[in-house]
Amino acid sequence: MDPLGLLRQYFGYDRFRPPQEAVIRRLLAGQHALVIMPTGAGKSLCYQIPALASLHGPLKTTGKPPLTLVLSPLIALMKDQVDALKSRNIPATFINSSLSRGERQRRYAAVASGEYLLLYVTPERFRKPEFLDAIARRQIDLLAVDEAHCISEWGHDFRPDYTRLHEFRTLIGQPTTIALTATATPDVQQDIVRQLGLEADEVQTFHAGIDRPNLRLSVEEVWGDEEKCRQIEAISQRHAVCSEAVGSEAVGSGSGIVYFTLIRTLERFSELLRIRQIPHVCYHGDLERNQRRRIQNQFMSGESPLVLATPAFGMGIDKSNIRFVIHAEIPGSMEAWYQEIGRAGRDGDPADCVLLYEESDLLTQMEFLRWSNPDAEFYQRVDDLLRHHREQIEAFGLEWMREKLHARQKHDHRLETVLGMLERYGVIELSWEPLRLSCLSELAPELKDPERLAAKLRRDQQKLLALVQFIRHDGDKKEYLRNYFGLTN
Q1: CATH 3.40.50.300: does it fit domain 3-207?
Q2: Nearest to residue 253, comparing CAs of 140, 121, 349, 377?
Q3: Which parts of the chain have pLDDT scores under 50?
């Protein structure tokens, strides 16, 4: 069956969006592709249709249909994507840390036996011998790398295991590969191809642009919390998100997200909005997992249409009628800002993306960049604590570590950054309830290199500067975006 026939049969669409069909035909011809498409433009179809084509083709010598392996960092999104495929009778599954050990083992066996056509995993899954054993029993014809900007150290959401993709591709037989992302500067695009172990002339880049005409971009310069609250209230009322929005003032019902950099700022604004009797919920990383899930479900169902959130909220949010995204504090980069506003207006109707700019917030973001970029000496101090004081850490928790590392700096978040990076690099393994710690390997060389870490900090500072220049740009904001992402004519 041809790609258009598969699109009609399984997804109910009569035509592809550009450049979906061209990408699909290239993959079916066994050639590699890099796809840059705006959020909500249909990137997933670019690998799902080729996977279905293999299902309708002749079985391989194994007697099993080929497997399409999808690598994604977004555990929160995997279940939604797999559920959507299953609802269309497409055999797909995911394997990640959210599953019990018994369920993971069952799915490994099902993958090995040929039960599934698409398998979603994080790149960290390649560390697991049982996973490698399961996929060794399948022929993998297509590797799809979602959120491919995570490959690149020049990207805004770097994941160390993504730099092993060349190794992974070798392990699974060098299959046809597609890398997909909504945001990638020219430097990041080149790095993605290099990290995949491919030459530039082997990969065709399909760039659908970044412009989403239904998103209205604006920057409002504000002074103080009260003015920010007034802006949040006015935008919420305009979109009928808070209870006071009635009559002709409301331009359309839906939901809204207000992003904050710091949890303490979010909580301060929550109290200010509560005093104003503006209904809302709060989502951040200090909440228990069940509480976060409940809040996300309330937002997705429309029960709580306004959420105040840190950037952790949105990884897996695919809600069509988000009518506005407000940044109450300046984010860290153009890429981060563009990814977050991408959650608005996925139904194609107009949506507002408003950045509330207060110059003093720059100091917060600069401090946040420092927390996100610990130096080599701090990495070594944390590593020494983990290796020589494991019993105290497991008994007294992270607060004990903070006391040892930076007793007088209550809001210093470098420890969280270091622990996250040590886990990503496979140096440690942490479980939280109860706290248990295992040291798996020596401190990664990349985390001991002062020059490399300093260069990373400088790149992040340059990204913040580019966002400030965007804020102060008097011309067309979307034209500035196109220039930043290398889309000049």
Answers
A1: yes
A2: 349
A3: 244-252
